[in-house]
Amino acid sequence: MLKYTQLCLNYLKSHSTLLSHQNNVLVQQSRNTYILKRKYPAPLYKKHQRFPRMTHKHFIYEYVENTNRRKQKKIDLVLLEDVKNVGEKGEKVSITSQRAYETLILPKLAVYATPENLKKYLIEDEMKKKLSLNSSKFVTRTIDILSQCYLPITMSIENPWTIEKWHVRVAFRNEGYIVPEDTITLPKKTITGPDLNIENKEFYVIVKINNQEEVKVRCKIHHYTSDPENKVIYEVPFYQLPSIAIFPEDQPILDSLPKHPLADKIDDDLKK
């Protein structure tokens, strides 16, 4: 009988240690906070009296609230940059605390609207009107990209042609830009071909953005044919070829336009 009892005790001890180890592994800290209340109030006791015994019903609780489900309070921020669907630089905005911390404060796109930050970063409405001279907040970036573009105008080497607006529109589309024809201004002089004397020579068109800003775009003439024997082939990239204007009077304007980004990179490498 004693041996059987000892075996039972050893069995229970082994299982209790296993359970305790499992609890240590499974139990993890959580930041969830639940507010509960007793369904049956605990009995009170007077001074110098024995504490009344609590039964199982005193440990029955009713759910009141989960604090994580509370509606987040909004906090005031001042934007340091233009943020899509939020606001413009220097604007004071109110955003929920979690979204503000994750998407604006951590990436350093905004700061808390403290008196010091308001004085330093807030832009009043009158100042905004003076600063917002552009038709769009993206127009500066658009002008920079288009001014560095080398737009290849691919024309037939066999059939006669004259450069028209739709040729330029299609060339823009091939490069990934959607430019309506009514925003394109061609040179006053017509350009006709095929003419290998103007192969790889340049002219410029003017593109109007939002009916306000204008940008000059460099265009290069390239003759194309499906006949392998008559194809014009270059051993170097087009942006490394010399920039020669079709019309000599346009040469100063073409020279003033920014170079292709890869051409600038090659020049820097050669200088080193």
Automatic annotation (TrEMBL):
<feature type="domain" description="Ribosomal protein L9">
    <location>
        <begin position="76"/>
        <end position="121"/>
    </location>
</feature>
<dbReference type="GO" id="GO:0003735">
    <property type="term" value="F:structural constituent of ribosome"/>
</dbReference>
<dbReference type="InterPro" id="IPR020070">
    <property type="entry name" value="Ribosomal_bL9_N"/>
</dbReference>
<dbReference type="InterPro" id="IPR009027">
    <property type="entry name" value="Ribosomal_bL9/RNase_H1_N"/>
</dbReference>
<protein>
    <recommendedName>
        <fullName>Large ribosomal subunit protein bL9m</fullName>
    </recommendedName>
</protein>
<dbReference type="InterPro" id="IPR000244">
    <property type="entry name" value="Ribosomal_bL9"/>
</dbReference>
<keyword id="KW-0687">Ribonucleoprotein</keyword>
<dbReference type="Pfam" id="PF01281">
    <property type="entry name" value="Ribosomal_L9_N"/>
</dbReference>
<keyword id="KW-0689">Ribosomal protein</keyword>
<dbReference type="GO" id="GO:0005840">
    <property type="term" value="C:ribosome"/>
</dbReference>
<dbReference type="InterPro" id="IPR036935">
    <property type="entry name" value="Ribosomal_bL9_N_sf"/>
</dbReference>
<dbReference type="GO" id="GO:1990904">
    <property type="term" value="C:ribonucleoprotein complex"/>
</dbReference>
<dbReference type="GO" id="GO:0006412">
    <property type="term" value="P:translation"/>
</dbReference>
<comment type="similarity">
    <text>Belongs to the bacterial ribosomal protein bL9 family.</text>
</comment>
